[in-house]
Amino acid sequence: MKAFMDADFLLQTETAKRLFHETAKELPVIDFHNHLSPKEIAEDMRYENIAQVWLGGDHYKWRAMRANGIPERLITGDGEPYEKFEAWADTIENAIGNPLYHWTHLELQRYFGVQTVLKKETAKEIWEACNAKLQEPSFSARGLLKQQRAEVLCTTDDPADDLRYHKALKEEGFDILTLPSFRPEKALGIEKEDFAAYLEKLSGVSGVSIGNTADLLSALCKRLAFFKETGARVSDHSIEGRFFEKTTEAEVDAILRKRLSGGTVTEEECAKFSGYLLTELGKEYARQGFVMQLHIGALRNNSERFFRKLGPDTGFDSMNDFPYAAQLSALLNAMDEEDLLPRTILYGLNGRDYDMLSSMAGNFQGNEEGIRGKVQAGTAWWFMDQKSGMEKQMKSLMSIGLFSTFIGMLTDSRSFLSFPRHEYFRRILCNLVGELVENGEYPEDRKSLERLIRGICYDNAKAYFSL
């Protein structure tokens, strides 16, 4: 029987062990999509206790705690920090097979040197050990990032943001490159109640009076230029339902005027509006050298009761199951027809879509710039961000695409303790490749294997994002 999460955790073959320990383990981290707070990085936030840094804002953990019957007072409520931590310890003891179990113990080991298994009986001991470490200078927000060899971070930011903290970090010369990402979700959400109010805000920061589609695109492009000046090179879009219908600018203008005059828009009109804006923004991303990320398939805010109580991003989202291959093809083609398809990453939240996404990416790889893997079938995301999900996504890409061009892992996290997820991914990757070698399905060519692992863990992303 193997020891619990020892040095060879998840590494089943000698080839896998060699690839991880000799190549993957010490590579720097390029985390090209996360939800970290740039304010906390700029101010180098210190944390009072492990509950604050570990449980605050982490809706992955909140979902598990609710499933374990923990009252909301000890999840998002006003419970005492130690009570919340003890409730989490009780929950994690019951989380066999869940990636949270592995992530939790990787974080305890890598940041705090704690080898003790977390459960209710050990909660007090681990609480005290972690809190003592948090008093050390190297356990500030920046210190935690440096401990895990973070080299580049791309946060997620609204076009109306002033990016003051990114600018401050840039002026300071902070040695972890911290870049904003352009996420114009609110400008495309024509069906949302706050849409008109958001356009007023966007108008104010851009200096563009928004009365039609051209005005809206002008305002967004002005903000994109501002983001680029601050170092941004990535955009991000959440696609959660019907998102593309072929249309014209005149038709989209009419839809926008209807909405701004207080009218209700149909599902088809929303798809025309979002599809047109996604297409035109994508062309601008291509002109400006931005990468376009499409996160597809979340079904958000399922519990209206808790949405009213706690708001969004609090653990009540799940995966959707709508078919979207034809819409995605039409969107990518609308940009590609003018040879203005940007480098694009396609993330699917439902594992059933991996083969479709791997094959879809292959339709639009042609380019004269020599970009390897111009359209990426992105890494396993959110609910699929676990051992079987990662293996499924990588095996799909191996079988249908060109695995050596894959740009690898990201955290998609709000937690400064989440970076051992890169190690988790690297172990799974090395084990998968090692298995192919030891099964005689790929030669034991050490230089080629080292190049493959380095590429997926680090080099490919560095080239893809022009870092």
Question: Could you characterize the architecture of this molecule?
Answer:
With about 475 residues, the chain is an alpha/beta fold. The chain has two domains: about 15-45 and about 150-465, TIM Barrel, CATH 3.20.20.140; about 45-140, uronate isomerase, domain 2, chain A (Orthogonal Bundle), CATH 1.10.2020. About 50% of the residues lie in helices and about 5% in strands. The protein is built from 20 helices and nine strands. Strands 4-5-8-9 form a four-stranded parallel sheet, with helices on one face. Helix 12 (about 215-230) runs parallel beside helix 14 and helix 13 (about 250-260) packs across helix 14.
Key features of this structure:
about 475 residues; alpha/beta; TIM Barrel; uronate isomerase, domain 2, chain A; four-stranded parallel β-sheet; 20 helices; 9 strands
Structure described in brief:
This protein is α/β, with parallel strands linked by helices and 467 residues long. The chain contains 20 helices and nine strands.
